[in-house]
Specification:
By secondary structure, this protein is of the alpha/beta class. It contains 8 helices and 17 strands.
Length: 249
């Protein structure tokens, strides 16, 4: 396999040294051509030579990894994001649907990320914007989410999602403009992500955006009527929670 060049960026010296050792010892097809502990140091390195792969920590002492990407908007390097186990950062990566290495990482995590870089799997500009928005404004609720379809990744406004329906290991998203997107992730994956932005899993197979609930119908076991005239069943276990939310409107 073709040898790849790499630059490592991390503001914690011990983390930088550990990553260098792991790559050197376990991935001989990666040649490290530079290391940096700050945005300024990284910028100096990248002006001289752009590597095939850039291992990039998100939070740096003098800024963020996004500052580096803004300095080099036409950067050709494949980016492998590295982040500490911070709840805000992890949430941000999930909403952006961007892969990352979580410190402390395993050998398998590192190997997987390098394999993806070698296969040229790279997030697009819109995904990076979703990630940047979520990381740099951790106290704000996310407004966009990246959805993986079988052919591409689509960034959508969360407020335009009316409801989601489970289809085994897939999820169908239904939108305000009547469009639909089939995504290769489970409903649970999105229920956990979207619960903080007004979504409620009312049934094993259904997740709804509560702002689009029109009324609760008590007949036929109980179901929701949404503003797009969809009828969404409500499980017995979720009935009291749904009624409590509706009473707070």
């Amino acid at each position: 396999m073709k040898e790849l060049t790499a630059i490592l960026v991390d503001d914690i010296p011990v983390a930088l040294e550990m990553l260098e050792n792991d790559i050197t010892n376990n991935h001989p097809d990666i040649k490290i051509i530079g290391k940096a502990k700050s945005v300024v140091e990284a910028a100096k390195l990248l002006r001289k030579q752009q590597p095939d792969v850039l291992f990039l920590d998100i939070m740096l002492g003098d800024g963020t990894g996004f500052d580096i990407l803004e300095i080099f908007p036409d950067l050709k390097s494949k980016i492998i994001f590295v982040t500490a186990s911070d709840a805000f950062a992890i949430k941000a990566f999930k909403f952006a649907a961007i892969d990352y290495i979580l410190k402390p990482y395993s050998d398998e995590d590192l190997a997987t990320s390098i394999e993806k870089a070698q296969n040229q799997i790279q997030p697009d500009k819109q995904q990076l914007n979703v990630l940047q928005e979520a990381v740099t404004s951790p106290n704000n609720k996310p407004t966009k989410i990246s959805l993986h379809t079988s052919q591409k990744i689509i960034v959508v406004n969360i407020e335009n999602i009316i409801h989601c329906k489970s289809d085994n290991n897939y999820t169908t998203f239904f939108f305000k403009d009547t469009s639909k997107i089939l995504v290769s992730k489970t409903l649970k994956h999105y229920a956990d992500m979207l619960k903080e932005v007004g979504f409620l899993r009312v049934h094993q197979s259904h997740l709804v955006n509560t702002k689009y609930i029109k009324e609760f119908i008590k007949s036929d076991g109980g179901y929701l009527m949404l503003t797009d005239n969809s009828n969404i069943p409500v499980s017995v276990r979720k009935r009291n929670e749904v009624l409590a939310i509706l009473s707070s409107f």
